[in-house]
Amino acid sequence: MLAAAIFTAPTALPADSPAPSPEKLEALHSKIDALNQRIGEEISHKRSLSAELGKLEQRIGALYRKLDSLQSRKEQLQSRREKLARATQAGRDEASKAQDALSKALRSSFILGRQPRIKLALQDEDPAQVARMLAYYGYYARAHARHITELTATIAHYQALEKQLAATQNKLSRTVAAQQESLSALEKTRQERKAVLAKLNEDIANNQTRVAQLKQDAARLEKVIHSVHRDLDDLGFDEVPQVAFSSLRGKLPWPVSGKIVASFGSSRADHGALDWEAVRIAAPAGARVRAISYGRIAYTGWLPFYGLVLMVDHGDGYLVVYGHNEAIYRQVGEWVHPGEVIATVGRSGGQSRALLYFQIRHNDRPLDPASWCRGNPSRNR
User: Fold this and answer.
1) How far apart are CA 86 and CA 84, in angstroms?
2) What does the alpha-carbon distance between residue 335 and residue 81 come to, in Å, rounded to a whole number?
């Protein structure tokens, strides 16, 4: 994981995030959904195995999000259960003492109630003494009544704690069961992905076929990026943060800690037919991917080779692409701040190892992330 310090914003953020109207947001969602549907139909028609891989990896991403949510819920319930258990244990002793005290108080009150005030008055001839005794018994009776009320409330409080503890334990048991069910589904889906990936790799064993598909995948990514830019422009999503992205060159943090295994501009492992227009960072599966700057989620979806992809619009034509994700945690239209978790590292897109595909673009031109991000991601472990 990256150290928290490297995600400190280089400059101040806007006090209030611009909020697009619900109509604009709904329109953007509709356009992105339509785009993903067109991509899915195109892939299904041309590459059925790739389409199947996409469905499986999206299902895996959804299961990881569910597991993450269940784990958070489980931790909250465990913490609450521990607090309730401590309070209930202490309360059992307190309630027992209160019960004994209540019994004594009720007996005293009963005895006191059997002493009529007129009888007390006739036992002493001194009027001042009689008045003092009557006042004393009045105070004593009221104090007893308050004490009885307090003891009753104490007992009821700890009885309620016992019920809360039982209810929390039941919720925790259900959460753990749901978590186990999701883990089983995840493992099953992983095995299905493995089988589909093996078939897919058999189909593209020929290098010429592999290069052709890689070019096709790269062209599809370009097409999606152009569509995203066009949709944002058409809908008037022109709000930009107070700090221009262009001024952050060389100051941005890396999105994840890890080792760069493919540098920008280097030749891909396909006899130099293509060059990398991004960097690929090897990191542990499930490592948190963080936004490098303030911006808006412009696209989420699945693309061949790139897998689960998330794009963040930073205004003025700047767009950052995060690919090969295991799961995506933000939705289109949401604003994100530097260091905010937006996804987790994975193998989606048919990758054999956990990687992050990280690309910075200005309009139609890919930029070298190494010249925009400070230091080296491997030094931030």
Assistant:
1) 5
2) 35
Tell me: the pLDDT tens digits for 39-59? 565 555 445 666 777 777 788
Nearest to 281 by CA among 301, 304, 258: 258
Looking at residue 127, what is its pLDDT?
Answer: 64
Distance CA 35, CA 311 (A): 14
Q: Which amino acid is at 351?
A: Q
Q: What is the mean pLDDT of residues 167-181?
A: 80
Q: Which domains does the chain have, with CATH numbers?
A: 4-18+207-380 (2.70.70.10), 77-188 (1.10.287)
Identify the CA nearest to 373 among candidates 295, 261, 267, 260.
Answer: 260
Considering the chain, what is the average pLDDT of its residues?
Answer: 75
Residue 36 near residue 298 (C-beta atoms within 8 A): no
The one-letter code for the residue type at 331 is Q
Q: Six-digit token pair at 18?
A: 């611009």
C-alpha 14/C-alpha 86 separation (Å) is 44
- 228, 314 contact by CB (below 8 A): no
Q: Are 291 and 342 in contact (CB under 8 A)?
A: yes
Cβ–Cβ under 8 Å, residues 39 and 301? yes
pLDDT of residue 10: 40
Q: Compute the C-alpha angle 38/40/296, nearest 5°.
A: 75
* Percentage of the chain lying above the pLDDT 70 cut: 61
> Helix H segments across 204-305?
207-234
Q: Is 340 helix (H, G, I), strand (E, B) or coil?
A: coil
Query: How many Cα atoms sit within 13 Å of 201 on the Cβ side?
Result: 10
Per-residue pLDDT of 108-127, as tens digits, reads 555 555 555 555 555 555 66
| Residue count (the chain) | 381
Place of tokens 């995030």: 17
Summarize the confidence of residues 154-170 as an average pLDDT: 76
Per-residue pLDDT of 287-300, as tens digits, reads: 999 999 999 999 99
Of 298, 320, 300, 299, the residue nearest 308 (C-alpha): 300
